[in-house]
Amino acid sequence: MILRSITSLLERKINDRKIIILLGPRQVGKTTLLKNYFTTPDTLWLNGDESDVRTLLTDASSTALKRIVGTKKRLIIDEAQRIPNIGLSLKLIYDEIPHVKVIATGSSSFELSNQVNEPLTGRKWEYHLWPLSHNEMVSHTSFLEENRLLEQRLLYGFYPDVITNSGEEQSIIKQLSDSYLYKDILAWQDIKKPQKLEALLQALAYQIGQEVSYQELGRLTGMDNQTVERYINLLEKAFVVFRLPSLARNLRNELKKSRKIYFYDLGIRNAIINNWKPLALRQDTGAMWENFLIVERLKFKAYNSIFTNDYFWRTHAQQEIDFIEDYQGKLHAYEFKWNNKRSVKFSKSFTSAYPDNKLMVVNQENYFDFISQT
Questions:
Q1: What is each CA distance from 192 to 78, 96, 189, 218, 236, in whole angstroms?
Q2: Is residue 1 assigned to a domain?
Q3: What is the spatial distance between Cα 237 and Cα 240, in angstroms, rounded to a whole number?
Q4: What region, left, alpha or beta, does residue 217 occupy, with left being phi > 0 and alpha being psi -120 to 50 degrees?
Q5: Quick check: 102 and 20 in contact, CB under 8 A?
Q6: How far apart are CA 179 and CA 157, in angstroms?
Q7: Which of 318, 236, 302 is CA-nearest to residue 310?
């Protein structure tokens, strides 16, 4: 059992009354985490994938919900987004059955968040479970072992099944990407042209680390700008990709309203383009390194309740900084280099425009400091 960092967050909230909403893509270990944590007989498990459970909990009255819960002290509803109007049912449980603590999981923030945000205002804690993190694996094995496996992690990612089935990485990650990237997303929004979604994912996979233009993506995929943006928003809600906006405050030639798009898991990204070449033979190693570092940093901040505004920075003159955190009014600027020997000079335009800053070059020698520093 690989200890998940989010466990400490859940432990701090397990004895209050608020409902815990645990979001994250399929197969990242939400069910495994909770089954290892809640082993006592006073826990009731319900699975939203089962039709009779959906029937029981859809538009149920408080009397019916009390009958279902009985004397149990913990109620876990897995894949809660599959249950129509689950937000209203959870609100009734919270209001009418105060002795039970509820934990609901969902593999789509688009579906579950939409259902629970309004009914559960002030009644919930919401957390995101990511694929395994580099820090979690260091705790499970050692820093030396994970450093040796760094190239493998960049190629195959951090899904638990991938990590625990050495030698079968490609087949497992391909199956994962085919099952949840396409089938779930297509079903959620009744997308009529799945080939367009596949083309968009491939275009995004080839453009990690680069500015993304909806107009260019539309040209590549045969979609209009609005459809491209809608699909990207859907992919974000399904925990496939996320957007990083540009920082633009002081200089006239800074790029405004620009964005980069990264993948939550590099194994999924590499499966989409079916590229498993070693890093030494790839043209995208630097972009993969950038994606890896940003995602691992986001995991660390999420599990340690560190809240920052995140950006990249670029001017029309192509001056650039890979990643910036705005934390308590101070900018922390980072440049990412896979090659330890490459020298880096931070833009004088940036340091002059934003003098209250902290600068750091992140490479293979010091990356662990970056992804694990508070």
A1: 28, 42, 9, 17, 19
A2: no
A3: 8
A4: alpha
A5: yes
A6: 17
A7: 302
pLDDT in tens for each of the 374 residues of the chain?
Answer: 899 999 999 999 999 999 999 998 888 999 999 998 888 899 999 999 999 999 999 999 999 999 999 999 999 999 998 898 899 999 999 999 999 999 999 886 666 777 787 888 899 999 999 999 999 999 999 999 999 999 999 999 999 999 999 999 999 999 888 876 666 666 666 666 678 888 999 999 999 989 999 999 999 999 999 989 988 988 888 889 999 999 877 666 666 778 999 999 999 999 999 999 999 999 999 999 999 999 999 999 999 999 999 999 988 877 899 999 999 889 999 999 998 877 788 888 888 888 888 999 999 999 999 999 87
Residue 78: its H or E element: strand 74-78
Return d(Cα 102, Cα 10) in angstroms, integer.
12
Terminal-residue alpha carbon distance, the chain: 26
Measure the CA–CA gap between 7 and 140, rounded to whole angstroms: 14
CA dist 288 to 53, 81, 262, 263, 295, Å? Answer: 42, 32, 9, 10, 11
Q: How far apart are alpha carbons 352 and 361 in whole angstroms? A: 18
Structure tokens at 72: 């149990």
User: φ and ψ at 90, to 5 degrees?
Assistant: -65, -40
Residues 172, 69 share a domain = no
Tally of domains within the chain: 2
Q: Are residues 244 and 311 in the same domain?
A: yes
Query: Within 10 Å of residue 289's Cβ, how many Cβ atoms?
Result: 24
Task: Give the angle subtended at the CA of 197 by the CAs of 194 and 198, to the nearest 5°.
Answer: 90
Say if residue 106 is in the same domain as residue 230: no
Q: Cβ contacts of residue 115 below 8 Å, gap of 6+?
A: 81, 85, 86, 87
DSSP-assigned letters across all residues of 294-334: HHHHHHHHHHTT---EEEEEEBTT--EEEEEEEETTEEEEE
156, 181 contact by CB (below 8 A) = no
Residue 18 lies in a domain: yes
284 backbone φψ class: left, alpha, beta (φ>0; ψ -120 to 50): alpha
Q: Show the domain range for 208.
A: 142-372
